[in-house]
Amino acid sequence: xxxxxxxxxxxxxxxxxxxxxxxxxxxxxxxxxxxxxxxxxxxxxxxxxxxxxxxxxxxxxxxxxxxxxxxxxxxxxxxxxxxxxxxxxxxxxxxxxxxxxxxxxxxxxxxxxxxxxxxxxxxxxxxxxxxxxxxxxxxxxxxxxxxxxxxxxxxxxxxxxxxxxxxxxxxxxxxxxxxxxxxxxxxxxxxxxxxxxxxxxxxxxxxxxxxxxxxxxxxxxxxx
Length: 224
Prior knowledge:
By secondary structure, the protein is of the alpha+beta class. 15% of the residues lie in helices and 56% in strands.
């Protein structure tokens, strides 16, 4: 199998299987920049705010950049920036969509020196901030509860790797600039790694590129 065909298969799998809870990639390093973590149900987490209930739904965690990896004995600690997008509801009424950004730190046990394998993981910290209207919204990984998970990296051959990963993340919410924090009343959010969902602009560019390729194949080679 040529590398071009392998890459084509990887792209097709990523686009055709958005709910497969796994990704196919040419880069086995962590965190997986071609994937995103999502919950399998709409409700990601709920937080009691006074007598009301605020919910984060349809959450996507992606955009892993500025990655720095540290070796701590046999383990690898990864620090990176990330993006979280989701919808906010108050007592089941939609308030709006929110985009939050911030740093994340994860631990991958036994990763040093191993490209493939199954590794116990833990989200050590996450600190996200965003705004909804005039309200600043802060979300952090619980400083007292362990957010654990697992990652499996499999060599598929032809330069391709399959990555399966999940985390059970305990989160807390603050609406007062971090003066007080509200733990999620629904426990940890179970998030699984899935293929990155292209933004609408990227999908339009992809469609345009495929159309140009199709037209050029129909036209055949240009002769002077």
